[in-house]
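Translate sequence into structure tokens.
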Amino acid sequence: VQLVESGGGVVRPGGSLRLSCVASGFDFKSATISWVRRAPGKGPERVSRLSPSGGATYSADFVRGRFTASRDNDKNTLYLQMNSLKPEDTGVYFCNAGFAWGQGTQVTVSS
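Result follows.
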């Protein structure tokens, strides 16, 4: 089982990033998948969770209207489109499926 995130980087406030998570080694099409982030000095917090069909089963209040999670089951890939980024969005973003975690991708929002 492997989850590999990419797409992080440094962006100014108000900017956008698109994160990707490529999955392998399990039945991605049948899995509920989440984005979880860990900000500096804070515990992990769930950003969004998608059902196998792509419906959002959870979306954190702090990202509603700014972030959109989606998935492409043909490509075994999860996405997180992040718009209107704020400094408080800085952190490491992970994708998670059951007990499987990726290594994370760093997002830094700074002027």
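Note: The chain has no helices and eleven strands.
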